[in-house]
User: Fold DUF2845 domain-containing protein from Lysobacter auxotrophicus.
Amino acid sequence: MRIATPLMLAVTLLAATSGHAAESYAFGNRVLIVGDSAGKLIELAGSPVHKEPVENKFGAHEAERWEFRRDEKTLFVTIRDGKVFQIDEVY
Assistant:
């Protein structure tokens, strides 16, 4: 059991510093939530600095991952069928 405690602490710290998936993200006093339109995202965050396709294991297009720079973080928003599907913050 002694090995498990330090290992769990290391995994927890790594997860806490690498990124965070969220159901919402605040842009000042306005909030983007999963399910909002891509248009609302552009209205709140502006144009993305980068877009990349998301493909399934067969190479078919499933979504796009849009990258935004916010303060000292990188925000990745996955757009599927014109709507926000996933929000990820990377520190």
Notes: The chain has one domain: 19-90. Residues 9-17 have pLDDT under 50 and may be disordered. The helical segments are 4-18, 38-45.
